[in-house]
Amino acid sequence: MGKNDVIDVVRKYKQRVVAEFGPVSVYLFGSYSNNTARPDSDIDIAVIVPEVKGDFLKASSVLWALTWDLNTLIEPVLIDQRYPSPLYYEVLNTGVLV
């Protein structure tokens, strides 16, 4: 899958995420953002929210459920802005905002 096709998939996924969680930042990161993707690469997506309301694991499960009929290669990661991690900074520095 080419990078433009992947970005189209990420845009569709973002629409679903926004409908479920409200305003969020969605980034493509990993191999597709740094042009090292192979045919078997997954699609790494960071969903950055101002605050996770309720159970973090349940919210993460919802992110996964939103991928099922769209593309099984999507690997979503939920990030709460209040608790920045090394991954958060990597996404901001190397990811593609969608």
Please state the CA-atom Rg, rounded to the nearest Å: 13 Å
Largest sheet: 4 strands, mixed
Shape: globular
Instruction: Tell me the number of helical segments per DSSP (H or I, 4 or more residues long).
Output: 3
**Beta fraction of the residues?**
15-25%
Mean pLDDT: 93
Share of helix among residues?
A: 25-40%
Order of helices and strands: HEEHEHE
Unreliable stretches: none
The number of E-state strands comes to 4
Strand order of the largest sheet: 3-2-1-4
Query: Between the first and last Cα atoms, what is the distance in angstroms?
Result: 17 Å
Supply the helix-strand structural class: alpha+beta
Write structural notes for this entry.
The chain is an alpha+beta fold and 98 residues long. Helix content is 39%, strand content 21%. It contains three helices and four strands; from the N terminus they run αββαβαβ. It has a four-stranded mixed sheet with strand order 3-2-1-4, sandwiched between helices. α2 links the parallel β2 (43-49) and β3 (74-80). The longest helix has 19 residues, at 3-21. The radius of gyration is 13 Å and the shape is globular.
